[in-house]
Design a protein that fits this description.
The chain is α+β, with helices and mostly antiparallel strands. It has seven helices and seven strands.
């Protein structure tokens, strides 16, 4: 969405594409104050502070309310327009609705956290199994269709074969 606003937030111009995510018609917004559509007015203050200090901002994230009051995450890129004496006149720029991208980012963060938690649980479970496996008083082996894939040191002591020799042997033949 292309926009132009005064420094106090009055909307001077906005492209018709604003209705695609805000449900506002262009004509409804021109002449009104951005104050009414900001999710948090403090975000506007931070945005204005940055644009006044740097003369522009890129990808500044902010929340705006659509006509139904739903908060939309937006990314603003804008520049400060000055007159010939250097006095700030207005802001021109564009904004993008990034709500869906933010939702996907959050879902991905949750999935990553779940994955990391499950990996930690798996490591702890594996360690507990290994401890029990190694502490057993009898020979223990795990097989895949009869072939030994894992065994404890007790089985090695009982049979006289090293663990390396036992892995790959037919466990049923060994018994």
């Amino acid at each position: 969405v292309y926009f132009e606003t005064t420094l106090d937030g009055t909307i001077l111009e906005v492209s018709p594409s604003v209705r695609n995510f805000s449900h506002y018609q262009r004509e409804e917004l021109i002449g009104t104050s951005m104050v009414e559509i900001y999710g948090l007015f403090k975000e506007r203050e931070k945005y204005l502070e940055q644009v006044l200090a740097k003369g522009m901002v890129q990808n500044f994230e902010i929340q705006l309310k659509d006509k139904n009051g739903t908060l939309r995450n937006c990314s603003i890129t804008s520049v400060l327009v000055r007159d010939s004496q250097g006095t700030p006149l207005k802001l021109i720029g564009s904004l993008r609705d990034i709500t869906e991208g933010k939702r996907v980012e959050e879902a991905l963060r949750v999935q990553i956290a779940d994955y990391e938690t499950s990996q930690q649980f798996l490591r702890e479970s594996e360690e507990r199994f290994k401890t029990l496996h190694d502490a057993a008083f009898g020979g223990v082996f795990i097989h895949d269709q009869g072939l030994i894939v894992e065994c404890n040191h007790v089985l090695s002591d009982i049979t006289g074969f090293s663990n390396e020799e036992l892995v790959g042997m037919n466990g049923f033949a060994l018994i």
